[in-house]
Amino acid sequence: MSRKKISSVIAPTIRPAPAGLKPGATTPKIEPERYELFSSPAYHFDLNRREFFKILGGGLLIVCVLPRAEAGQESGRRGFGRGEQMPKEISAWLHIGENGKVTVYTGKVEMGQNIRTSLTQAVAEELRVAPESIQMVMGDTDLTPFDMGTFGSRTTPTMNPELRKAAAAALDALLDMAAKTWGVDRSKLSAAGGKITDPVSGRSTQYAQLLKGKELAQTIPAEDPLVPADQWNVMGKPLPKVDGRDFVTGKHKYTSDLKLPGMLYGKVLRPSSFGATLTSIDTKDAEAIEGVTVVHDGDFVGVAAPTSALAARALVAIHAEWKSSPQQISSNILFEYLASATSIDSGGGGRRLGSIEQGMASAMAHSEQTYNVAYIAHTPLEPRAAVAEWKDDKLNVWTGTQRPFGVKGELAAAFHIPEDQVRVRVPDTGAAYGGKHTGECAIEAARLARAANRPVKLVWTREEEFTWAYFRPAGVIEVKAGVRKDGTITAWEFHNYNSGSSGIDTPYDVANQLILFHPVKDLLRQGSYRGLAATANHFARESHMDELAQISKMDPLAFRLKNLKNDRLKAVFQAAAEKFGWGKTPATPDRGFGIAGGVEKGGYVATCAEVKIDSKSGEVKIVRVVAAFECGAVVNPDGLRNQVEGANIMGIGGALFEAIEFADGRILNPRLAKYRVPRFSDVPAIEVVLVDRKDLPSAGAGETPLIGLAPAVGNAIFNATGVRLRSLPMAPNGIKL
Amino acid sequence: MPKITELFINGTKHSVDVDADTNLLSVLRDHLDLTGSKYGCGEGQCGACTVLLDGLPRRSCITKVGAVAGKRITTIEGLAPDGNLHPLQQAFLDEGAFQCAYCTSGMILTASALLKSNPNPVESEIRTFMEGNVCRCGTHLRIIAAIRRAAESMKGVSR
Q1: What residues contact B82, with CB distance under 8 A and at least 6 apart?
Q2: What confidence tens digit (pLDDT) does each residue in A214-241 have?
Q3: How many domains does chain A have?
């Protein structure tokens, strides 16, 4: 492939911004490493204490201040002071009403990872109340403090301890009040079940009683002691999904289920291909349909109608001509393109250690391989959806997004209105997996609602979701290594083109390393995906580790352990191997065993897989998986098992058969009939081994369990057949034997 | 275009006024506010829209409303009419057989049809019957466990 061809590549952009939308307001491209943006901008909260209690009612208010702001403050507890202004950088707040009702406000959102449940546990633990008495208000930009977004497995390591601190501070304040009321030493009092008891006199009081007629507000002290993990009563134990009943009865309202009075149903006319521009349009026939509003604003064309059927009819009645962009790269030459494309910037992150040349020189054997990773789609079962309403100069939007405050900003920018005129609410969402960071659906719904002067609901079709959202980046990874006769890795060189730098560092102990991420001009709109590039990087690394073990004539597990000093990773490798019975059964041509593992986002995973190969058809079936996972102290063991199982099942798709195919600026398989996702028949037996480290802080778990599956399966296929598969997906049509 | 004016859903007659070629899913969701049935793919591939027609699981997104007039339609809202959960609903809660739960109503309705025709299915039968229902969060093994648990709890109870 010539360089000239590559330079003519036009990357698809998000559908053209309507006139009246600021160019770029819809964030056309997300950098793959968006997760790294952990620092939060200052939150300018303009309510004062009085207003706060006017909204929430009397009682006790505890405000969590972000650590950065905390550092600049005096230590110890403090009230709001004379000015009564709220502190500026707030991560969450917690309110206990005069009726004893506990309400917790956080900008995090629930999309199936079950943090509504685990955060409830955190508050229940420290406040000593029953989980049922706690209400979590999540992802509402008017009611909850600013939050960067729910991604990067950050909820458990950050929001969980912040809410625990808030709850602990609330309990402190309540104990103070009770001690003062009774004139006793507060250290003698105990709290349980929403009640404070004085064991000496036998007196007790409900929290609600203490708060009657009070309006108390405090920011939390940094040094409040939390309940240690080995003394947890609510955390560390399984708690079923809160509100679970609403989900099994169909009562829960996802964004796509909402209905406002007078609401219309929206549809958007999509360009004929990525980058296409509108050359002519005739909307007369659509406008003639009663009740239909047509919006034609720049390259944005959409309709709103009283029923979804009518909206669909109106859309078909629009006659539009599009001019396609020049030639675009197709998926059949994707990897050639990525391998030959020039880096667009050299600062993509990585590591240099020792000297690769010297490491290679001291090696007995050398290896060099290239691994490919295809674009894949998140395919959340609930597609992007938004309901938008303009009311009294305020734009109200309900939408399933991982970044309610980010989408609020996108809406304000798109419509040139101040952010305080926008409110975004996120109903518990039908999954996201990293795919719902952006607000295009919300902007489109709001544009239609403004034109129709009525609330509008827009639910993307599956095809729109497959085409106009964004993808997990494709990538090419080149690995070179040298190994000594005794199996010691002496040199490790690793280049990732385009897919990203998450999990790019090797956890193995290698003296000479060169590890680089090379961003190149992307072909499709790409962004976050559960686990990010850690899946690609672990696939390449852990496959190559197996290749080195083969060269060294060592058992794959023994080879890894020989090159590993990280005790936590060693522990999960050993736990998985033991449960799996690693090395006990010899491989046959139709049955193989593989192992892989890694460290990412504070989680340690080792995965063993057993595959069955049909010697006639070449069909690969994963029959058994053992995943050992360690993420510090386990908050909700059943919720965690659910995540580990789910991550492994989701990982099957990317490992074996999921791939987005594209040509001429179009997605060729934008339907579930053509894009294969894991189904019941694909799911192996899965055993999860949780390594519960009560001595370590809890880390997130939604992503990392996914990263071991693909390499473990690839290694198992090699173990059975001797065929090494180096491209994800590995066996969309079985393997050639 | 012929009109459909009446549908028999969850044991109750519902008045509607829709073209016969409208898909059942949008009538349930948009016209009757029965939003427990979900849109997932619009081509009968994911099962999120599953309802029961005269007791058999059908994809409401590709079913024209004209074809179901006069039939008994059951949606997830009709499974616990008296507020007592169906054993499958209880089993899904007990097994924690969901994450985002967007697929749950379709899973439960499909499973209810399975248990009707095969009250004691073995795992492979459950997998085969449920193959057309997609769970993207990957709770398949819990769903299988929930169906077995429900089958167990329904033994000797006719529903």
Answers
A1: none
A2: 999 888 765 567 999 999 999 999 999 9
A3: 3
Least confident of A79-88, A178-187, B57-66: A79-88
- How high is the ipTM of this complex? 0.98
Count of Cβ atoms closer than 10 Å to residue B26 Cβ = 21
Query: Which of B18, B19, B138 is closest, CB to CB, to A648?
Result: B138
Predicted confidence (pLDDT) at residue A351 exceeds the cutoff of 90: no
Mutate to test the interface with A, among B41, B46, B64, B89 (most CBs of A within 10 A): B41
Residues of chain A with Cβ-Cβ distance to B92 below 8 Å are: 248
Whole-angstrom Cα distance, residue A200 to residue A189?
Answer: 9
Task: Return the amino acid letter for A107.
Answer: G
Is residue A18 included in any domain, yes or no? yes
Residue A134 near residue A104, CB atoms below 8 Å:
yes
Angle (CA) A694-A695-A697 rounded to 5° is 85
- Rounded to an integer, the average pLDDT of A454-464 is 98
pLDDT digits (tens, 9 = 90+) for A325-334: 877 889 999 9
* Chain A residues touching B140 at Cβ < 8 A: 649, 678-680, 683
pLDDT at A348: 57
Chain B residues in contact with A639 (beta carbon < 8 A): 96
A291 and A406 co-located in one domain: yes
Full-model pTM: 0.93
How many CA atoms, within 13 angstroms, populate the side-chain half-sphere of residue A449? 29
Joined together, the tokens standing for residue A333 give 């030459």
- A74 within domain boundaries: no
Which whole number is the average pLDDT over A17-24?
A: 34
Q: What is the pLDDT of residue A63?
A: 86
Domain match, A9 and A130 both: no
A415 and A368 in one domain? no
- For residues A265 and A303, membership in a common domain is answered with yes
Q: How far is B70 from chain A (nearest CA, A)?
A: 22
Structure confidence at residue A83 (pLDDT): 43
Mean of pLDDT values over A155-179: 93
CATH of the domain at A151: 3.30.365.10
A666 SS3 class: strand
* A206 and A163 inside one domain: yes
Chain B touched by A150 (CB under 8 Å): no
Q: Is A631 on the interface with B (CB under 8 A)?
A: no
B69 interfacial to chain A (CB closer than 8 Å) = no
Which of A309, A433, A642 lies at the smallest CB-CB distance from B22?
A309
**In the predicted model, what is the mean pLDDT of chain A?**
89
A219/A286 same-domain check: no
Q: Under a CB-based contact definition with an 8 Å cutoff, are residues A536 and A708 in contact?
A: no
- Do A304 and A356 share a structural domain? no
Q: Does A251 touch chain B (CB under 8 A)?
A: yes
Contact status, residue A638 vs residue A603, Cβ threshold 8 Å: no
Nearest C-alpha neighbor of A47 from the set A79, A16, A88: A88
Of the listed ranges A27-36, A291-300, A368-377, the least confidently predicted one is: A27-36
Instruction: Quote the minimal CA–CA distance from B3 to chain A in Å.
Output: 14
Question: Which of A228, A249, A270 corresponds to the end of one domain?
Answer: A249
B3 neighbourhood in chain A, CB within 8 Å: none
pLDDT tens, residue by residue, B75-91: 999 999 888 999 999 99
Residues A575 and A694 in one domain: yes
Secondary structure (H, E, C), A430-459: CCCCCCCCCCHHHHHHHHHHHHHCCCEEEE
Looking at residue A20, its pLDDT comes to: 34
Give the model confidence (pLDDT) of A34-73 as tens digits. Answer: 333 333 333 334 456 777 788 888 999 988 876 554 333 3
Domain that residue A154 falls in: 90-249
Residue A67 lies in a domain: no
